[in-house]
Amino acid sequence: MNLANKLTIARIFMVPFFILFMELGGVCNSILALVVFCAASITDFFDGQIARKNKIITLLGIFLDPLADKLLISAAFICFVGIPMLGISAWMVIIIIGREFVITGLRSIAATKNIIIPADKSGKFKTISQIVAIILTLLILIINETLFKFVRLTTDTLKLYDCGSYATLVLIMKRIPFWATFITVVFTVYSGVNYMLKYRKLLSKNG
Asked: Considering the chain, what is the average pLDDT of its residues?
């Protein structure tokens, strides 16, 4: 097994640890979840670089790489829905994960016709937006948990101390996870529609 595939498999094995830390909660576990996610994201970058540089793209890598990405991203957003303070709605996550099912199905149809659908720019922007949204959300979660643990404050009670700059800062902090995820949803929908339009002939009887 080549190095690129080993990194991909390592990323898959990181997913259960990420979920475990998110489920345990607390400042330390949230920090560990962030570290695991960042480490997994780094392996995603390097396994692709190594495979292309050494020209060792294999069928196993083609199968495992998108699987690892979907597992990690889906796990993060599903965990976020279960944390009310983040304000991330379930419908957003359904769209994000639903897009992956649709494009995976499209790729499966293409495979039956010996066609490989490569990642395009819209897909790459989608992935980058997802990673940025998850990292920002984890940082906000850590800040919230740190405030509560050490000074028994939440972003809601902070507003009681100052109606000016603190209130504005608190409002921005509270809305970052929602809007970061919303932007991700926009990129996700755009990417999905772009793929479907580009390869719509695959869905026709004569395609």
From this structure: 83
How many CA within 13 A on the CB side of residue 205?
Answer: 0
Instruction: Please choose, from the candidates 144, 123, 130, the residue with its C-alpha nearest in 3D space to the C-alpha of residue 93.
Output: 130
**pLDDT tens digit sequence for 160-182:** 555 555 556 666 777 899 999 99
| Cα-based torsion angle of the residue sequence 48, 68, 35, 190 in order, rounded to the nearest 10 degrees | 80
pTM, rounded to two decimals: 0.86
Calculate what percentage of the chain has a pLDDT beyond 70: 81
Q: How many residues does the chain have?
A: 207
| HSE value, Cβ hemisphere, 13 Å, CA-based, for 61 | 19
Q: Say if CB 11 and CB 46 are below 8 A apart.
A: no
